[in-house]
Amino acid sequence: MARFLPIFATQIIFLLFLLSSFTKIQVHGYAKTMNKNLMGLKKEKLTHFQIYWHDIQSGQNPTSISVVRPPTNTSTNGFGIINMIDNPLTAGPEMSSKMVGRAQGFYALASQEEVDLLMAMNFAFIEGKYNGSSITVLGRNQVFSKIREMPVIGGSGLFSLVFGESYGYAKTIDKKFFGLKEEKRSHFRVYWHDIYSGSNPTAMAIVQPQNNSSTMFGFLSMIDDPLTEGPELNSKLVGKAQGFYGSASQEENGLIVIMNFVFMEGKYNGSTLTILGRNKVFLPVREMPVIGGSGLFRFARGYVKARTIKFNQTNGDATVEYNIYVLHY
Ligand SMILES: *[C@@H]1O[C@H](CO)[C@@H](O)[C@H](O)[C@H]1NC(C)=O
Ligand SMILES: *[C@@H]1O[C@H](CO)[C@@H](O)[C@H](O)[C@H]1NC(C)=O
Ligand SMILES: *[C@@H]1O[C@H](CO)[C@@H](O)[C@H](O)[C@H]1NC(C)=O
Ligand SMILES: *[C@@H]1O[C@H](CO)[C@@H](O)[C@H](O)[C@H]1NC(C)=O
Ligand SMILES: *[C@@H]1O[C@H](CO)[C@@H](O)[C@H](O)[C@H]1NC(C)=O
Ligand SMILES: *[C@@H]1O[C@H](CO)[C@@H](O)[C@H](O)[C@H]1NC(C)=O
Fold it and tell me: Where are the transmembrane segments (predicted)?
């Protein structure tokens, strides 16, 4: 089903190593404030890589396999599928060219209408001075768009404290590209509708908990939830929340949430924000980090505050107000 997915894509990665904002860390018992010098941080660097990513689903040695299949065929594009990948990264477009690393992680089909993936992967380098270092990418991949932009949200080794962005397909850009303008602060308020009932559900349970856990530990749901301007579902549609959430606590109602807010309106049309955090759903207000963005939200960081407006215990439908506070360029 997922065979038509991104096959050979060039990944161009722009990285900005950011050091300055990591100096204020609070101390509490097991944590300790460190100064920048102790962390051995040197100068911030700009790096640009061009590599080729091979998603191989066919043959005897596939590097990409479906690990979750949706329980029902509600959509034709495979909404709900999750593929685990260990894809080769090469220096040239041919599979036989020099192997520089592996892309390890997963992608999920998180749109009911298009082929939009939520991708979470580590680029683990195995070559030269970058051997052993990795870059973490998490974002939205609109597979059939010529160029897709996804945030680089972190790294290890030579890529410590990295943030930046990655592109699909080649594009020439000089250093001025990083001549970032002024950092902006934005606040958005949108309403998130998680709909399980009726004939047009926007959320689908894709993995059921194995045991009868009172917190449904192990449960996973894929969402393509409308984001509207007002609390009513029929108010103006401004975007979609695509991704999934799962119960990751055995004792409380605590979800891990990974989703892209894809804006579809006005000047933000096509731009995304990536949210990854913990959601204790029965608290009046929950806070989750914004860890990246694309388009007008490049280099985004910030947080959201989520407040449930409506929740139907019987069918699981929920409306949640999201206040988004974000710094971006
Ligand atoms: C979904 O569709 C595929 C291919 O059309 C079929 O093989 C599979 O059995 C279907 N699954 C369900 C649960 O209907
Ligand atoms: C990369 O590092 C691993 C482990 O340290 C080592 O075994 C391997 O030979 C290195 N590869 C290259 C190409 O340097
Ligand atoms: C889970 O609950 C169902 C019905 O409540 C019961 O039939 C089943 O044995 C339970 N399974 C476990 C592993 O406890
Ligand atoms: C389910 O519960 C049984 C009995 O308590 C336990 O042996 C098993 O490991 C559990 N499975 C999972 C996946 O949690
Ligand atoms: C948003 O962008 C898409 C693709 O570029 C376009 O088809 C759509 O009409 C735009 N929507 C609005 C409201 O501008
Ligand atoms: C909650 O869901 C149930 C089952 O779908 C429905 O009968 C009920 O009317 C809903 N309650 C509200 C307040 O919408």
Answer: none
Name residue 278's beta-bridge partners.
Answer: 256
Ligand 5 center–CA 62 separation, angstroms: 36
69-121 pLDDT per residue, tens: 888 766 678 899 999 999 999 999 999 999 999 999 999 999 998 889 999 99
Judged by its nearest atom, the ligand closest to the C-alpha of residue 126 is 2
**C-alpha to C-alpha distances, 254 to 67, 223, 245, nearest whole angstrom:** 23, 17, 10
Name the residue among 260, 3, 300 with its Cα closest to residue 142.
260
In a domain, 268, yes or no: yes
CB atoms within 10 A of CB 120: 21
C-beta of residue 300 within 8 angstroms of C-beta of residue 292: yes
Ligand 1, residues 73, 109, 206, 208: which to mutate, most atoms within 8 A of Cβ? 73
167 and 57 within one domain: yes
Considering every ligand atom shown, identify the ligand nearest to the alpha carbon of residue 217 and give its number: 4
Would 2 be classed as within a structural domain? no
**Separation of 158 CA from ligand 2 center, angstroms?**
15
Host domain of residue 52: 7-178
